[in-house]
Each structure stands twice: as C-alpha cells, then as structure tokens.
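We include the entry.

. . .
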Amino acid sequence: MHPPRPNYLLKPAKRRDNIFKLGGVNARSGAQKMITLLSIIALGFFLGMRHATDPDHVIAVTTIVSRQRSIRHAALIGCLWGLGHTITILAVGSAIVLFGLVIPPRVGLTMELSVGLMLILLGVLNLSGVMRWITESVTPVAAQHSHTHGHGDFVHSHPHGHGPERHGHAEDATPVGWMDRVFGQLGFYQVVRPLAVGLVHGLAGSAAVALLVLTTIRVPTWAVLYLLVFGIGTVAGMMLITAAIAVPFKFSQGRFERLNRNLGLISGIVSVAFGLFIVYQMGFVNGLFTHHPTWVPR
C-alpha cells in the first residue's frame, strides 16, 4: 500500500475538496464555540437573577426598602446593592479562577458571618426607626403660639406647636426644605448603604460561585465573563425584587398607616432573627468560634 500523496501533489480538484473540508471543520468549530459562549452568557444571567432571590439577600434589601415610598428609588437601591455584590463577586471570584486562590475555612466562615452581622445591624436600624415613631406619637402636643424660627438660612414666623413636625406649613414649602426633598434622595448615606450591603453579601457568596464555575468552565477568560454576566443578572433581579417590595409600602402609606408601620416592624424583626441564625450556624455549628472550623462554600 502506497502512502497518501502530499496535498501539493494532488490534482487541483482534490486539493480544492480538501481545503473545503478543512474550512468546514473550522466553521463548525467556530459555531460550536459561539453557541457555548452564548449558553454561558444566558446561563450566567438567569442564575444571577435566581441568586438575587436568596433569603438573606431579600431580607437585607427589605429592611432598606421598607422606608422607601418611591418604586423608582427602591429599584435604584436594588441596582446599587447588585453593583456592590457584582464588584466583590468579580474581584474575589476572578482571583480564585485565574490565580487558584484558596480560601481557608476560618476566613470563609468569617465572610459568611459578616452577612449575619450585617442583617442584625440593618434590623436594629429599622426597629430603632419604629421605636422613634412610637416615642413621637405618644408625646403630648403643646398649645400653639407664634415665634420666629428658621429652616437653614430661611427665617420667618407663624403659629405652630412644639410637638414633632407641628409647623404651620409643610417642610418642603421652604427653600431649604425643597432642596432637601429634591437632593436628599441622592445623599451619600442612601447610596453607600445598599452598596456596602451588596459588597458584604458578594464577599460571602463569591467562593461558592467561583468554585461552581471552575467545575464547569475550563477556559479562564470565559469563566471570568460568566462571573461578570452573573453579576449583571443579579443587578437585574434585585432591581425587580426591590421594586416589587416597595409596592405594598408605597400604597399602604396613606391608606393603611398601621399596616405600613407593621410591615416595617416585621421586616426589622425578621432581619435580626435571620442574622442571629446565621451567626449561630457559622459560629457554633460550623465551628468558627471553636478550634475545628468546617466550611463548605454554597
């Protein structure tokens, strides 16, 4: 049997057939890679939206959104939370994927514990707001009289009492009050709080997400792309969740004030209770406060 003749010795027609076959293989390979990449993007986006519905995430944003009366602002809070979550997931997850970073059990448990502490803090802040309302509501209202008072640089006089919010006009009727109403929604604290909460939650979940990616996606650049799309999906999912959570708070504000206050009270209690549960699980069940910690990212 004679060995196959080199391609350059074949007749032109056969050379052309071999080139077409080779081009077909390359085209099929490119198409398969494109389908795989699109599948990774779609899977990452929808799993990111699913990740936003985890109980600790929903409880955390509920305690923040419970004081919001605007669906648009609530969605913005969800976007900021998702952005903070994405930053941490992308940073820590990329380090695990690209550099083989190994997180010790005690460090991993501490990251999980931070979520519980964050939920406790948010719940306490929410409950303290409710307690402040109770204190103000039972304060006796003094008789009304007139004297001069000011709102920042705006000074005037009219009859009013000394009870909380007992001025003879709405606060947003003054120049300074109007500026507070318009620009106060974009204050530093309102922006930083959901962003910081998202950063902490991303820190706790980044190891599990990165390890899941490592078991399914072997190409490092694709794995990092998956993490990015996963984060974008989390942002989208959390925006929808916070907007939906804000609906009952918005429509119960004017018509059902007691229901509105109860919703805020319940969200604070649930946040504290779930935070204590996480602290107990990480600290005692998984052994963070003992000499033999065990941690399985999930």
Remarks:
- The first strand starts at residue 145 and ends at 151.
- The chain has a mean pLDDT of 77.
- Residues 12-51 form the longest helix (40 residues).
- Residues 11-135+167-285 form one domain.
